[in-house]
Amino acid sequence: MSRDMEWMNILLNQHKLAASMLTSGVLESSNNQVRSHFKAILDGTLDHQKQIYDVMSQKGWYSVSPAPQAEVTRISQSMSNIQQQ
To answer: Among the four 15, 28, 64, 85, which has the fewest Cβ within 10 Å?
Structure first.
């Protein structure tokens, strides 16, 4: 593993951890200002995570196998059902 790839993996994992912690902050905030602040930071963190992933993917350092279409359809329908309830 190259040094650059190693650093990018570390950055990606740190952003995943930060996103998880910030999501908890949003969900547990009763103060609207604090909640908005966490949401803004979370949005930036998610944007950075996507940029890191895109670079890694372009370099062949992070590959994801596409989900079978039947699974995508099943999950999509399940989420639609949840939203309708």
So the answer is: 85
Size of the chain in residues? 85
* Six token digits for residue 77: 């329908």
**Residue appearing with tokens 């650093």:** 7
DSSP 8-state secondary structure symbol assigned to residue 68:
P
Q: What is the DSSP string of 20-81?
A: HHHHHHHHH--SHHHHHHHHHHHHHHHHHHHHHHHHHHHTTSS--PPPPHHHHHHHHHHHHH
pLDDT digits (tens, 9 = 90+) for 25-40: 999 999 999 999 999 9
Domain ranges of the chain: 3-84
Distances from the Cα of 53 to the Cα of 15, 30, 62, angstroms: 10, 32, 7
Reading the block at residue 41, the tokens are 């930071």
pTM of the model: 0.77
